Amino acid sequence: MAKRVFFSFHYQDVIDFRANVVRQCWVTKSDRETAGYFDASLWESSRREGKESLKRLINSGLNGTSFTSVLIGSDTYSRPWVRYEIFKSLEKGNGLHGLHINLIPCKNRQTKVSGPNPFDYLAVKFNDKGDRVDLCEWDEQKWIWYKDVSGWILPQPQLHNAGQLKQLSTWYPTYCWVGDNGYQNFSAWIGK
Question: How many structural domains comprise the chain?
Fold first, then answer.
């Protein structure tokens, strides 16, 4: 059965067509079941709306999904709405991975070096009992509390992580669409 995948990306990567290559790869397969996923991402067409409206739109887009694929371009790591989508995906319990897309030629047939991994800039801080996490982001100097998504109580205490701050890159893998043959492997990466 195909999974519903939420794609998180920086809008510039849509303009450059890199995000679309990944999001639309199912088109060249016999059907979406073969591709292994349904695209449940959102366009930033409503980014001019207020902050609360955008949060509702993102939360609605995440409904019914079980996996979030973060398409990593040059500046994805610093985009506030990508950070929000990652933390809401984590809170929801979605599977999560990062996917470098800068080696996909853009509309002008140019490639770029891989951008920074957003998971290096986001973390969870376990309380001293290991039964609650709060969310943090790196502000280029230090870890600060993330304010747009509240932390939560864990269903099972994680005593081995008690009192620790863990970057999301500790747990969530990243791949390269070109170098790791995403066209063939994407279904396996999302656990189809």
Answer: 1
Confidence band, pLDDT 50/70/90 cuts, at residue 23: confident
Q: 27-80 pLDDT, tens per residue?
A: 555 554 544 455 555 554 555 667 888 899 899 999 999 999 999 999 999 999
What count of other Cβ atoms lies within 10 Å of the Cβ of residue 110?
9
Domain that holds residue 177: 3-115+171-189
Report the amino acid identity of residue 117: N
Please return the burial class of 108, using the count of CB atoms within 10 Å of its CB with bins 0-12, 13-18 and 19+.
Answer: exposed
Angstrom distance (rounded) from CA 105 to CA 41: 22
Residue 28 covered by a domain: yes
CA–CA separation, 104 and 71 (whole Å): 11
Domain assignment of residue 125, yes or no: no
pTM of the model: 0.89
Cα separation of 36 and 79, whole Å? 28
On whether residue 181 sits in a domain, the answer given is: yes
Report whether 169 contacts 120 (CB < 8 A): yes
Q: Where residue 151 falls among pLDDT bands split at 50, 70, 90?
A: very high
Contact 22, 187 (CB under 8 A): no
- Give the CATH number of the domain where residue 40 resides: 3.40.50
